[in-house]
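User: I'm putting together a teaching handout on how multi-component assemblies are represented. Below are the sequence lines for each component of a complex, exactly as they appear in our records. Could you produce the 3D structure of the whole assembly as structure tokens, so the students can see both representations side by side? Please keep the chain order the same as the input.
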Amino acid sequence: MTTTVDQGSATARGEPNVLLKLWRNKETRSVIIQIVTMALLFAFFAYIINNAVLNLQALGKTFSFDFLQEPASYDINQTLIEYTSRSSHARAMLVGILNTALVAFCGVILATILGFVLGVIRLSNNWLASRIVYVFIEFTRNVPVLLHILLIHGIMVHFLPLPKQAISVGDALFLSNRGVYAPRPEFLDGFGFTVAAFGIAVIAAVIFRRWAKKVQEDTGKIYPVFLICTGVIIGLPLIVFLISGSPLVWELPKMGRFNLQGGVMMLPEFLALWLALSFYTSAFIAEIVRSGIMAINKGQWEAAGALGIRRNRVLQLVIIPQALRVIIPPLASQYLNLTKNSSLAIAIGYMDIVATIGGITLMQTGKEMETMIIVLLIYLSFSLVISAFMNWYNKRIALVER
Amino acid sequence: MANTHNPDMTPGLVNAYEPGEHPDWPAPSSVKGPAHWIKTNLFGSVTNTLLTLLTIYLLYKIIPAMVDWMFIDAAYTGTSRKDCEAQASGACWAFIGTRLQLFIYGFYPEAERWRVNLTAILLVVALAPVLYDNVPHRGKALIFTVLYPLIAGVLLVGGIFGLEYVATDQFGGLMLNVIIGVTGIAFSLPIGICLALGRQSHLPVLRIVCVAFIEFIRGVPLITLLFVAAVMLSYFVPPGTNFDLLVRMLIMVTLFASGYMAEVIRGGLQAIPKGQYEAADSMGLKYWQSMRLIILPQALKIAIPGIVNTFIALYKDTTLVIVIGRLDILGIGRSSLADSKWQGLSTEVYVFVAIFFFISCFLMSRYSLYLEKKLHTGH
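Assistant: Of course. Below is the structure of the complete assembly, with chains in the same order as your input.
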């Protein structure tokens, strides 16, 4: 129908234009728009790639990733895997990735704990504590995260004493401006039994939980699942540990002649980055937790109360499952932000991906294109992994609820 | 007869109340007044009491020391750190005072600083019709707002109309933060709208392109995009052309902000009921007409608080330019620490910059809350 009318009007005006006719049809128009978009996009990419090739030629550079196999010949102050200055650039990159992953992982855990505690205190009916947390949250999240990192790093480097006069906390933890020394666990021979016992306890707890749930569904009888599970998971390994003769000793850091020796040393750069990212993100998480709990209608509390459920069971069975649904999606994006913000490490010299491959390797090899592409791809895959995990968790939560 | 509003209150029933329970009487002090408030809000239960005591202890430990360091035992005048130390053992604010100009204008030539001031005043004029509805001659003022980026560029860089040329590497301090933040938001708004519409489009190619762009931008840190601007972007232009680092940075910051802006606007678009789209279709409006006249005005109104929040985040992120060697307010502070006369004053600098950012961001977040409340009553 439409096409005949269009044809009529086109011929009446004397416009036998096929393109115009196609443009007036909704389906063909969408096809045209998409083809044009693709063509423009390809043209754009062809143009910039062509430019890049010409520029590289003019500078006498090639585009290849061979430099990854060459020796890096620079030192990295924190390595989770074996690395020397003779190792390859690829190895340096791996060290950088692990350092980023370490600070992101520690940061996510501390930020979540802090954020939930702050969020709950913010909601508590203790006026004073709630106000203090409010001030902390507002101050923390309105100051750039880079400033947090620099401030904490500055305080650590300037105000903590030299290792020789390190502040000792119970002779186990030493705080100095070169780093914090903590005891290192040393596992002796029989420790495998304890690990095995822990594994068995976890499996037993999972089986017991399933069984208890089935019993509850069949008969309505409720077991104190949480208490029993915690007891088994902590108790069994503990008993095995004691029976097998406590095969774990802590290697304490000791004051040597010039420096502290032994134990685990955490660099001030790592600590500053970890604490700053955690504080900054925890302020956002606290607000997310607060709004998540407040989003639950008061009627939910009252309805559960009317059914005669005890207050802490209401929280566990009614409020938290619903609040989590509100909390999880923004929480996921905060985790992503924390991971991305860890790239600010370069400002204080913590050797993460940006500082290793995007920094020193780039300067040494002059491979701007290749190194930047690698860095961008690594961050993209970090983001995709985290958002995939959080999506999976979010789906699980949603299923539990409905 | 004050009880006429209560049907239960007949004179015969007055004696039915226990002594002290009569509704006409003021509530007893055990359920009202400061004593009761303290009891319920600070010492309501055992945990509550512990929390209160802990908080008071922390405050006692932190507040006096902080006030002492910042105000009482601080030095406000002097020409070097030694002067400060001779006066007081706390903060040395003289350092900030002598470098205040540097913190604001960076290395912008002193004789030309009036141009920066004028641009800042014009910024307020340009922003007023956007931020407040009841500005006189709003329509004309909005035209000025659209032209403002051009005017600001001419004023700041110069080189024409008899204005002396100022190279962009002399921009610095707070001025640089504001330039990057405002440019990023202003240009990311139209790009963000297009991306958000593209993401909701029925055309698969457009949708995929927009989703890929948005997810890429949101998946990488701003710092890597700035590195790209510094080292990689010049490879993508024809050989021989060389364009300014500040412009390259502004391009990357704008692209970065538009990824986030697109998501904020998508939130606004999704909040519009489907009936609005259908109503627009049934009126026979074409796609762009229905978007321009019906959907976007509503969606943008809902998205305004989100846009303000994006701006706050971007404004804080402008400090990252120091990693590619540009000196914003934080960078100026940091590089000032190298001055041998003022060594070791990093805490003062960072605290000053932190307070500055706190005040500006806090005010903006209050404004966004005010908007949220204002828009909420509309529904």
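A couple of points students might notice: Chain A has a mean pLDDT of 82. Strands of chain A lie at 167-169, 173-176, 179-182, 184-187, 248-251, 254-255, 260-261, 264-266.
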